Amino acid sequence: MPTPTLTPTLTNDTRALLSRLGVSDHRFTGGQLAARSPITGEAIAHVRETSPEEAAAAIGRAHAAFLAWRTVPAPRRGELIRLLGEELRLAKDDLGRLVTLETGKIASEGRGEVQEMIDICDFAVGLSRQLYGLTIASERPDHRMIETWHPLGVCGVISAFNFPVAVWSWNAALALTCGDPVVWKPSEKTPLTALATQAIVGRAIRRFGPDAPEGLCELLIGGPSLGEALVDDDRVKIVSATGSTSMGRAVAPRLARRFAHAILELGGNNAAIIAPSADLDLALRATAFAAVGTAGQRCTSLRRVFLHDRIYDGFVARLRRTYETIPIGDPLAEGTLLGPLIDGTAYRNMQRALEAARAVGGIVHGGHRWDGLGLPDAYYVRPALVEMPDQVGPMLQETFAPILYAMRYHDLSTAISLQNAVGAGLASSIFTLDMRETEAFLSVNGSDCGIANDNIGPSGAEIGGAFGGEKETGGGREAGSDAWRAYMRRATTTINYGAALPLAQGVEFTV
């Protein structure tokens, strides 16, 4: 068995990356929060956590910044985002590698996440000149109605480990363009990428000049109590929270109590339907990526596949062969397609789900621990394909791991009903070359998810489309054509430019 020799190299690599990205040594040395790389399971840095007093002060700075930033014209605010995009382009390779070190994603996914940050910056720059309101026809003569959109206030962002920087950028690029300062609480599992992103933002702000007030972008490092501080502080007018459905159930009522705005991006138990008419080669590639990519740790990862009787046996056999040959190992190494799970908790959750599947009659292929690197504190696994007799037990729940449940179906309406019969409603797909099946799946009687794809898997999204889902996924949307409205408040104005005072609906009131 190979001797585990990666840890010192990863630690040195991490320190060099953080230094090049502009993070001071004191930010990642000597702290109480151990930043661990799932590649080895060992600590690669020790980060100082934000105290409750520091968190309150950061929110106060952000609120003060809002009073100034909201008066800066939106196209000028867009210039800051343009500069941020430039800085991200310069830092893409280093930040992408840091994403891989801290999350275990393969190298191309780490770089791809930074590219997503760049893409949303480009999107937001154009948006800064398109925060349109409407002119509305009035029923009263000599009157004009208009709607105007104004900045809302401080935006709190709570992000998860699996997309440690992209989710922040989806929110921050739009919020800053719309006039809202941002206070960010990243996952305590991925503090280093947050520190690096904050340093990159700082460079863009310095280039932007004095129009950017202090407190425009604040960072809180630590555990759930800091997220609670964002959720409960009246100065934070909107909170975008990404995480589990259980987290959303805790966050939503607290925001509702103070009538704050919420963008909730929660769980996903995503499915694909593969029809007999499908291009099966394409469907196989799409299924493998959607189920195995990011070690099954995307909210859009494929978790359930419904296969028509006529193709079930052959497709499952091909998928098993593909799973057995997936290159597993160091995500920094060229050719690796499956890196580690984030930690031991994720591994144990995966094994519990597989045991539960066996208990209800599921046939499990793969799913065992892989120890080819000889790293006892890292959790590499073979992807699991589970043939299920019915949609029961763990198939009804989201497990953040590379588990794909397969079931037969006889007719499309049954497959759609099975797909929709779970709590989450994030992403879905159909693979078919039959136009009628496509249209049925995309119709009001079809998929009930926020994302419904045809001949492409559910995992992976472009920033041009609104991202988010329905039901227990929370209903939030990020990116897309009108997501900017979530970060602003609307004012409807009626202007009377005549001498009379006609009342709406023909009401008469003469004094």
Short note summarizing the structure:
This protein is of the alpha/beta class and 511 residues long. It contains 13 helices and 21 strands.
How would you describe what is shown here?
It is built from 13 helices and 21 strands. The protein has helices at residues 6-21, 52-69, 74-103, 107-127, 166-178, 191-208, 224-232, 245-257, 280-292, 309-325, 344-359, 412-420, 435-442; strands spanning 33-36, 43-47, 135-136, 143-151, 154-158, 182-185, 217-219, 236-242, 261-265, 270-274, 302-308, 363-366, 369-370, 380-381, 384-387, 403-409, 424-425, 427-431, 451-454, 470-471, 488-496. A seven-stranded mixed β-sheet has the order 12-15-16-11-10-18-19, with helices on both faces. The protein has a five-stranded parallel β-sheet with strand order 7-6-5-8-9, sandwiched between helices. It has a three-stranded antiparallel β-sheet with strand order 3-4-21, with no helix packed on it. Helix 1 runs antiparallel to helix 3 (74-103), helix 3 (74-103) runs antiparallel to helix 5 (166-178) and helix 3 runs antiparallel to helix 6 (191-208). It is globular, with a radius of gyration of 25 Å. The model has no long low-confidence stretch (mean pLDDT 97).
